[in-house]
Predict the 3D structure of the following.
Amino acid sequence: MSTTPDPRLQGHAGPPRDRLGRLPRDLRISVTDRCNFRCTYCMPAEIFGRDFAFLPRSEILRYEEITRLAGIFVRLGVEKLRITGGEPTVRRDLPDLVRQLASIEGVRDLTLTTNGSALRTLAAPLADAGLHRVTVSLDSLDDAVFRAMSGIDMPLARVLDGIAAARAAGLAPVKINMVVRRGVNEASIVPMARWARDAGFILRYIEYMDVGTANGWRLDDVVPGAEIIALVDAAFPLEDLQPNYAGEVANRFRYLDGAGEIGVIASVTAPFCGACSRARLSAEGELFTCLFAAHGTDLRAPLRSGVDDAGLEARIRAAWGARDDRYSELRSASTVNLPRVEMFAIGG
Ligand code: SAM
Ligand code: SF4
Ligand code: SF4
């Protein structure tokens, strides 16, 4: 009997559903665990100091390896690829990866999340390589607050220049992520809305999350999304917007005067696990099915030991099929201290 697969059966299995019926639509690819910032809520400098042991280069997936895995995810139904980290722009030759990912047939959205510090020079090469859009993380327009939250002595102007370069390169619409932390940058909520409205950027407020275990998260530090929206609404009246697609994480609002939209990602006070379609590939090639997972599925070992695409696909299907994650919906006092992967290891 022939061992050649019957071509009529190819694709027969269809996209995999997890145990809660969710499909994989969105793959976040962490290309490095390193970062030039030390944001207090992600990689606090006291813990991630000079001696911290980041992954050695040999353990990090090469661009060709990332592209091969991403291609398999796309065949399984993923339409959106987001490059993240750590800080993805600290990895050398990032446009080369973008070029490779852009050549995968079926990718509808290819984006990058960055702290913006390198966009002044990288925005144009990234756009030329085929990147569609960028999301830039920026927590305040006040230079002192920006420096305190990002844990780095860099002028805010460098990030603002990067954002301008992204727009000039056509990486639009530029999205801005602002993590809001009680008592730290609440006063920046309305000024950020004003700036983003005037400039035509899409601002996303993010509730401070208990990702990882290094940031000493406390519920008291979270400014609920509803409170953020009420503050903005008082300054610039808003109305609800429908989601762009099922599983969208941000609750969206439109300014009544037509000056664009904002969103809030309220994963603490209004969890959205029910439609979560996100898979995450760590820099070392582990597949995580939840931002709050303690363990992933190793794809690098099979990849490097010569397993073919069908074998890799089977491993991904098995991991996704076993998925029953809904951490944010189950979050409670007892879950906060459970072990889990750090955010910079798997991206946001
Ligand atoms: N370095 C890039 C950046 O900062 O945009 C990409 C990686 S970063 C881990 C991805 C996103 O996660 C950023 O928008 C960051 O603000 C967000 N983030 C990190 N730690 C967070 C936390 N504890 N709560 C909420 N968002 C967080
Ligand atoms: Fe770096 Fe991004 Fe984490 Fe800030 S949020 S420390 S920029 S990885
Ligand atoms: Fe998805 Fe996990 Fe976040 Fe829920 S907690 S939305 S399952 S990543």
